[in-house]
Design brief:
The complex is a heterodimer of chains A (about 130) and B (about 550). With about 130 residues, chain A is an alpha/beta fold. Helix content of chain A is about 45%, strand content about 15%. The mean pLDDT of chain A is about 95. In chain B, helix 11 runs parallel beside helix 13. The chains are: A alpha/beta (about 130), B alpha/beta (about 550).
Chain lengths: ~130, ~550
């Protein structure tokens, strides 16, 4: 029987072009055995959700360093639910103050990885928290 | 190789000693992975010619400094990158920093402006004034520079895709102040090649972007003689994860691409090359950075003389701004960042930078608070006034290690330059993803080293603290977006929209042809056409760049 691998979408929303972290996360997850799709830059929440559904991913990773996280994350979560894709999990990283991390987690973001996080921690999170149904 | 006793020392003194006590690491390497020897002595520099490799400050190949007196004549410009919120917020911060001893201005625009979009564009939602100051029209620039005489201070603007638009706005602001374009001094970053490679704030594809850039070279050489129409950058390449050698090589090779483009346009190299400027990173490895700047000056001088046949020595001078490495700062124990910035700033000074920005301790969290920005400025002032580092020129010149490392950086950089030459130049190299891949590999390598603890990052993977430090943070009020959008709507109603339309139509025609676009852009900004409106015209003519998929 073929075991399906967990599929991850790594997304760069808004105008933020700082993709060093997103690319490293994508590569680390791929090296750890996940199927990773990277959206590229300048994605709107609509585009991200569309890609997530089309690519049939299990989880979306959103990278934001521009400070627009309190606009982008809620919108992505809202659109996923609206399109009937509420089962797709959301996590993220970037420049996000601690109080906002708490707020985002309350909204349903599974985890936020801040500066200094190791790729090992991100892979472990994926291994522990995201399973193929 | 003349034996001055190093081998003897190694055999008779060092090896026996190491047998007893060993070394701390198996390999000692710079943060970029360059292997560093235990000791460099005279015999390792066999054949070193002072005249050929070093010469004197202000003399070819400028290794020891671009100016004869360097900081004894004039200190580096203390030019802190700054900007946030509304134009009024930024104007306030500029007045404050100037009152605290800032000697040059540097504008940080918010993301929409960087991408040629207005504050009310759908993609600007949540981004207005958050990463930099919101600039939509000339009115915003007038506010930013209100009370700041543009004949008394120089300004650098970090702007790339829409650089020509912001340059035009600056010229227009000066004119309103009664300052002629012949008097104003400053820089626009305007380096699109490194956008494709690293910073990613492009708008148009390479060919029209190069056209616009050479237009600015031509325009400035005739109309704005004190302006640096480009800041050929390695900072962002390094921030994206490159090694120091890659930063050096890709930056200089980008520079060579611009020089070639200027010459191909028919410009006299000695007419525009003296005003090309550069921008480098100052990362953690103290000596690697110093060697990098020195090697950079030597390589550029040779390239300008030999490859581009420049005759004017001013065309061969690598003048540069430096910024301490943002990517080296940590969120954990943020006060440690003050120490990092100090060491990095000292490297830039000992490396002979013309201008310097020192990062603030809180920048892994947010834009700098006033206190953090002040401390960053004080760092430079203490270096300048108290440390003695500025009392003599190129004090590390002649150090066996520094000269060895400078030679090594030069040799390694040339390897990359040769590869890119063979690919057909930098634009071709970018098309096949070469520099991007090199950077991604270096970034990944570094991250893995950090994850494994092979590369120590104090406070992150060693000497960690139980609890996190609470520091005050700058928060941008969401009111800023509402206010900016409202003001833009008001302005659009109150301006002469016929004049706007006419100027945009003339710009469009010029863009379809071969005219220098700067005068048309200047006309448009004077009608209060917005950044977005002007860029939309150019988008329609030039198209938009799309990065290749994959990672």
């Amino acid at each position: 029987m073929e075991t399906k691998r967990v599929r991850v979408l790594v997304a760069k929303p808004g105008l933020d072009g700082h993709d060093r972290g997103a690319r490293i996360v994508a590569r680390a997850l791929r090296d750890a055995g996940y199927e990773v799709i990277y959206t590229g830059l300048q994605q709107t929440p609509e585009m991200i959700v569309e890609s997530a559904i089309q690519e049939d991913v299990d989880i979306v990773g959103v990278s934001i360093l521009s400070g627009a996280h309190m606009t982008i994350f809620p919108e992505v979560i809202r659109l996923l639910k609206e399109k009937g894709a509420g089962h797709i999990k959301v996590f993220g990283g970037g420049i996000i103050p601690e109080d906002d991390v708490k707020r985002l987690k309350k909204m349903g973001v599974l985890e936020i990885f801040l500066p200094g996080a190791s790729t090992d921690a991100i892979v472990k999170f994926m291994n522990d928290k995201v399973k193929k149904k | 190789m003349k034996d001055r006793g190093k081998k003897n020392w190694e055999d008779e003194v060092l090896k026996p000693y190491l047998k007893k006590s060993g070394e701390r690491e198996k390999h000692f390497s710079t943060v970029s992975g360059l292997e560093i020897p235990a000791l460099v002595s005279e015999e390792d520099l066999e054949g070193f010619s002072y005249d050929e490799k070093l010469s004197f400050p202000g003399r070819y190949p400028f290794t020891r400094g671009v100016y004869p007196s360097m900081y004894r004549g004039r200190l580096w410009t203390m030019r802190q990158f700054s900007g946030f919120g509304t134009p009024r917020d930024t104007n306030k911060r500029y007045h404050y920093l100037l009152s605290q001893g800032l000697t040059g201005l540097s504008v940080a625009f918010h993301l929409p402006t960087l991408y040629g979009r207005d504050s009310d564009h759908p993609i600007s939602r949540g981004e207005v004034g958050v990463c930099g100051v919101a600039v939509d029209t000339l009115k915003d620039m007038e506010t930013i520079f209100s009370g700041i005489p543009l004949d008394k201070v120089t300004t650098s603007m970090t702007i790339n895709g829409p650089a020509s638009v912001l340059l035009a706005m600056y010229i227009a602001v000066a004119e309103k102040q009664g300052v002629s374009r012949k008097q104003i001094g400053g820089t626009i970053q305007n380096d699109i090649l490194k956008e494709y490679i690293a910073q990613k704030s492009w708008i148009f594809p390479p060919e029209p972007s190069m056209r616009l850039i050479i237009d600015t070279f031509e325009y400035c050489s005739q109309e704005v003689p004190r302006w640096n129409p480009i800041s050929i950058s390695g900072y962002h390449i390094r921030e994206a994860g490159s090694t120091a050698v890659q930063e050096l090589a890709f930056t200089l090779r980008d520079g060579m691409e611009y020089v070639k483009a200027g010459i191909d346009r028919g410009l006299d190299v000695d007419k525009f090359a003296p005003r090309l400027s550069f921008f480098f990173n100052a990362h953690n490895d103290f000596f690697e950075e110093i060697a990098k700047y020195r090697a950079g000056r030597r390589i550029w001088a040779k390239v300008m003389k030999e490859r581009f046949a420049a005759k004017n020595p001013e065309s061969m001078r690598l003048r540069f701004h430096t910024q301490t490495a943002g990517c080296s700062l940590t969120a954990q124990q943020p006060h440690n960042n003050v120490i990092r910035v100090t060491i990095q700033a000292l490297a830039a000074v000992l490396g002979g930078t013309q201008s310097l920005h020192t990062n603030s301790l809180d920048e892994t969290y947010a834009l700098p608070t006033e206190e953090a920005a002040t401390l960053a400025l004080r760092t430079q002032q203490i270096l300048a006034e108290e440390s003695g580092a500025a009392n003599t020129i190129d004090p590390l010149g002649g150090s066996y290690f520094v000269e060895w490392l400078t030679d090594k950086m030069e040799a390694e950089a040339w390897k990359y330059i040769d590869i890119i030459d063979k690919m057909g130049g930098m634009i071709e190299a970018i098309k096949v993803g070469f520099p991007q891949r090199e950077i991604a590999d270096a970034a990944y390598r570094y991250q893995k080293q950090a994850d494994k603890g092979e590369r120590t990052i104090v406070g992150v993977n060693k000497y960690c603290a139980e609890k996190s430090s609470e520091i005050p943070l700058l928060r941008i009020d969401p009111r800023v977006e509402k206010e900016k959008v409202q003001n833009l709507k008001k302005l659009r109603k109150s301006r002469d929209n016929q004049a706007v339309k006419k100027s945009l139509s003339r710009l469009e025609n010029a863009a379809l042809g071969k005219d220098n676009l700067v005068p048309y852009i200047l006309d448009a900004v004077k009608t209060y056409a917005s950044v977005g409106e002007i860029c939309d015209i150019l988008r329609a003519v030039f198209g938009e760049y799309k990065e290749a998929a994959g990672f």
